[in-house]
């Protein structure tokens, strides 16, 4: 089975490109697409052994990986323990705990969307947080 190719305008060394190659690699068992190809399922224990311990990312900590996912716009959908014998969500051989993440720009069969994934900076994070706080204050004032 051949791995999908990234578009030429994507830096193969940036975080989303590395993640894309991992989730599409038949050799990596710790991360897979959900059944609809709209989210990632990561087996934390296996990912730590298979990917982080091998130095494929700059971190060896799953918490740091989660922060990176958040900085690139991924949102955590939840965490579950694995079902015995694999689940029906495309989990296959995963052993758990399973973490589910989603980004509208990270979809199976759509590597072209990766160009839209930009790492959030402190300024963007602060601006977003302030906007959310202002919106909440506005709701309280009008309610």
UniProtKB/TrEMBL annotation:
Which SUPFAM superfamilies does the entry mention?
Winged helix' DNA-binding domain
Places the protein is found: Nucleus
Entry superkingdom:
Eukaryota
Signal peptide range? none
Question: What InterPro entries does the record point to?
Answer: HSF_DNA-bd (IPR000232), WH-like_DNA-bd_sf (IPR036388), WH_DNA-bd_sf (IPR036390)
UniProt entry keywords in alphabetical sequence: DNA-binding, Nucleus
Q: Which GO terms fall under molecular function for this chain's record?
A: DNA-binding transcription factor activity; sequence-specific DNA binding
Q: Which GO terms describe its cellular component?
A: nucleus
Q: Which family does it belong to?
A: Belongs to the HSF family.
**Classification via PANTHER family:** HEAT SHOCK FACTOR PROTEIN 5 (PTHR10015:SF278), HEAT SHOCK TRANSCRIPTION FACTOR (PTHR10015)
This chain belongs to which protein, by name?
HSF-type DNA-binding domain-containing protein
| UniProt source species | Otus sunia
């Amino acid at each position: 089975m051949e791995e999908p190719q990234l578009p030429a305008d994507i830096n193969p060394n940036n975080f989303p490109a590395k993640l894309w190659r991992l989730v599409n690699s038949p050799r990596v068992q710790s991360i897979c697409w959900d059944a609809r190809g709209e989210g990632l399922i990561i087996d934390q224990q296996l990912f730590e052994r298979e990917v982080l311990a091998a130095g494929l990312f700059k971190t060896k900590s799953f918490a740091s990986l989660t922060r990176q996912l958040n900085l690139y716009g991924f949102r955590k959908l939840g965490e579950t323990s694995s079902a015995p014998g694999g689940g029906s969500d495309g989990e296959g051989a995963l052993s758990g705990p399973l973490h589910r993440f989603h980004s509208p720009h990270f979809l199976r069969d759509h590597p072209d969307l990766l160009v839209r994934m930009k790492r959030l900076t402190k300024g963007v994070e602060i601006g977003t947080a302030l906007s959310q706080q202002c919106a909440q204050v506005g709701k309280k004032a009008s309610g």
